[in-house]
């Protein structure tokens, strides 16, 4: 059972109490088949409980949500096409696209290489491979010219074009728990086992941290904003925002009182002007120039303690003009698309969606209905236009034009968005 404690507040500027409950473990990396088994068990338990309560006259059966059960057929030209397998790579772990979607980095196994490499997202050919078998975390700069890797004790920076080592620093003799690099490649932030209450900010090229950001409780995540001027640390339900230049906290702690995935608790838009925070029953959006709350959205129906264990999955659309949110446990309602300025509900698509991605072309959405083939939706016409019978979704490019799947045999397959007339984007 997951128990959450928090101080209730209605004022957007009110500080958070010192009591912190660490968020539930991430389920973002749980295999799809395991999520299906958990979903089936949750549904069975919920039906049993509601049936027993209904017989005693204590509850009314929940109303059917949202959409009719019959779905439109995929009659139009498919929006995604399978363009092939990345060369010399299989069994991918946590692939990540560059910010401009031109390349991706992943830890992969193949007959010729075990470790981290970078691929060109268009040609699917490897651009570099780094001679490091053990790698815990990794990432790319905004321009894709530099990559960082962490083997658990040492951070290394690599030239992507030449695969040559640029700089390395030993962070700890124990274990580096969390690492992040600014998109411009000038700074790193780490949290080590030596003291999990401290986030160390490093300037690349230097052998000592320039800032030590101390906290009362252990840290669960660290990240930079897109400008590289701010670093966000997640301490339980509190998200602290610090200046990279001075180390000062720039605003009262923000609240993210829910489960959050591998992408962290604070989701900045591409310009760093707003930050999206997942909440237990929805999400909030905060203006980073004033740190004022812009709006709050509750996702889903009436509160149900047996079903609403984890919060909705919420993320920015590719063009940052919308937010798409889904319920993360059964009964999985529709994917909901909101205006990112006002929080107004714009569209509901798919009858049941565990997770949904909306690219820069906000007319097309990719939905994961958990126990069915992946679905491609025409958002404006609320129409299902394609199904993708893929095994496991590994990552979606920031602009939504490319999706990397992994087959049952562990081979990667790239799918690319195309126009209705057949031209690729």
Topology summary:
Blueprint: H1 32-55, E1 80-84, E2 90-97, E3 103-109, E4 114-120, E5 126-129, E6 137-140, E7 146-150, E8 154-159, E9 165-170, E10 176-181, E11 187-192, E12 198-203, E13 211-214, E14 221-224, E15 230-235, E16 238-243, E17 254-255, E18 266-268, E19 274-278, E20 282-287, E21 292-298, E22 313-316, E23 322-326, E24 335-339, E25 345-349, E26 355-358, E27 364-368, E28 374-378, E29 383-388, E30 392-396, E31 402-406, E32 412-417
Antiparallel strand pairs: 1-32, 2-3, 3-4, 4-5, 6-7, 7-8, 8-9, 10-11, 11-12, 12-13, 14-15, 15-16, 16-17, 18-19, 19-20, 20-21, 22-23, 23-24, 24-25, 26-27, 27-28, 28-29, 30-31, 31-32
Concise account of the structure shown:
This protein has 425 residues and is mainly beta. The chain has one helix at 32-55, and strands at 80-84, 90-97, 103-109, 114-120, 126-129, 137-140, 146-150, 154-159, 165-170, 176-181, 187-192, 198-203, 211-214, 221-224, 230-235, 238-243, 254-255, 266-268, 274-278, 282-287, 292-298, 313-316, 322-326, 335-339, 345-349, 355-358, 364-368, 374-378, 383-388, 392-396, 402-406, 412-417. The longest helix has 24 residues, at 32-55.
What does this structure look like?
- With 425 residues, the protein is mainly beta.
- Helices cover 6% and strands 40% of the residues.
- The protein is built from one helix and 32 strands.
- The strands form eight sheets. Strands 1-32-31-30 form a four-stranded antiparallel β-sheet, with no helix packed on it.
- Strand 28 (374-378) and strand 29 (383-388) form a beta hairpin.
- The protein is globular.
- The termini are far apart.
């Amino acid at each position: 059972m997951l128990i959450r404690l928090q101080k209730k507040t209605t004022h957007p500027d009110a500080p958070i109490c010192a009591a912190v409950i660490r968020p539930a473990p991430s389920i973002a990396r749980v295999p799809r088949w395991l999520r299906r088994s958990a979903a089936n068990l949750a549904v069975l338990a919920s039906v049993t409980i509601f049936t027993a309560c209904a017989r005693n006259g204590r509850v009314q059966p929940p109303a059917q949500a949202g959409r009719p059960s019959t779905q439109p057929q995929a009659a139009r030209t498919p929006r995604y096409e399978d363009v092939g397998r990345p060369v010399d790579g299989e069994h991918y772990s946590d692939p990540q696209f560059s910010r401009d979607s031109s390349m991706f980095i992943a830890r992969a196994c193949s007959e010729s290489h075990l470790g981290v490499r970078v691929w060109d997202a268009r040609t699917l050919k490897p651009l570099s491979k780094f001679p490091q078998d053990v790698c815990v975390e990794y990432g790319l700069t905004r321009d894709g010219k530099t990559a960082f890797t962490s083997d658990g004790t040492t951070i290394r920076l690599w030239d992507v074009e030449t695969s040559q080592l640029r700089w390395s620093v030993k962070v700890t003799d124990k274990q580096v728990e969390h690492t992040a690099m600014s998109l411009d490649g000038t700074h790193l932030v780490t949290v080590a086992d030596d003291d999990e209450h401290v986030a160390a900010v490093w300037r690349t090229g230097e052998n000592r941290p320039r800032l030590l950001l101390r906290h009362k409780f252990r840290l669960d995540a660290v990240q930079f904003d897109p400008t590289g001027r701010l670093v966000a640390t997640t301490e339980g339900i509190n998200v602290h925002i610090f200046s990279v230049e001075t180390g000062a906290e720039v605003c009262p702690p923000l609240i993210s009182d829910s489960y959050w995935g591998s992408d962290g608790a604070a989701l900045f838009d591409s310009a760093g002007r707003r930050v999206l925070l997942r909440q237990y029953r929805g999400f909030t959006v905060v203006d980073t120039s004033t740190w004022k709350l812009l709006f709050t959205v509750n996702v889903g129906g009436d509160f149900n303690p047996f079903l609403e264990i984890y919060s909705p999955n919420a993320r920015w659309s590719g063009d940052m003009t919308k937010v798409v949110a889904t319920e993360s446990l059964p009964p999985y309602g529709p994917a909901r698309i909101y205006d990112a300025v006002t929080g107004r509900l714009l569209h509901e698509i798919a009858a049941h969606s565990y997770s949904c991605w909306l690219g820069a072309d906000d007319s097309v959405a990719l939905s994961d209905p958990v126990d069915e083939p992946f679905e491609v939706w025409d958002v404006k016409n609320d129409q299902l236009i394609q199904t993708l019978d893929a095994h496991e979704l590994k990552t979606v490019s920031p602009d939504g034009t490319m999706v990397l799947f992994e087959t049952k045999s562990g081979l990667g397959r790239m799918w690319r968005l195309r126009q209705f007339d057949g031209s690729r984007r």
